[in-house]
């Protein structure tokens, strides 16, 4: 059962990554290049377009991860764990693909455009996706939801608690 849940989470995580990447790419192209002659606030500002698009993609990824991928492991409150999520996302999306690119270039001495793309954008992104899945499960969405948290109202628990001073012996 746990293996099945793990594989389900992994498949949902990959789907979320695909959706968030699609959102980031579409938004980047709209912001940077203004396709179809639509108004764009960052027309030709490529760096800012990239930053804004990928930040929005990260927000989409976080919400879908929280609500769908790790729905059985969600944090207590909306937004809880977002800073950890963002830090892990930023570190793994930069260091791992760049490390793969560096290894390909300087250790394997591969210098073609194809090898750069395969090492950084294929191998690097797949490894960073695997690292993020592990790190998100371990540090951001680490706590499985308990049965009583879904069906019981926390306010009811506070009402039911007995004050020790009122118990007579």
TrEMBL record:
Pfam families, A to Z: GtrA_DPMS_TM
Transmembrane feature ranges: 12-33, 45-62, 82-105, 117-136
Keywords: Membrane, Transmembrane, Transmembrane helix
Annotated compartments: Membrane
Cellular component, GO annotation: plasma membrane
This protein's record includes keyword Transmembrane: yes
GtrA/DPMS transmembrane domain ranges (all copies): 12-141
Predominant subcellular localization, coarse grouping: membrane
Topology within the bilayer: Multi-pass membrane protein
GO BP terms, alphabetized: polysaccharide biosynthetic process
Keyword Transmembrane helix: yes
Family: Belongs to the GtrA family.
Name of protein: Putative flippase GtrA (Transmembrane translocase of bactoprenol-linked glucose)
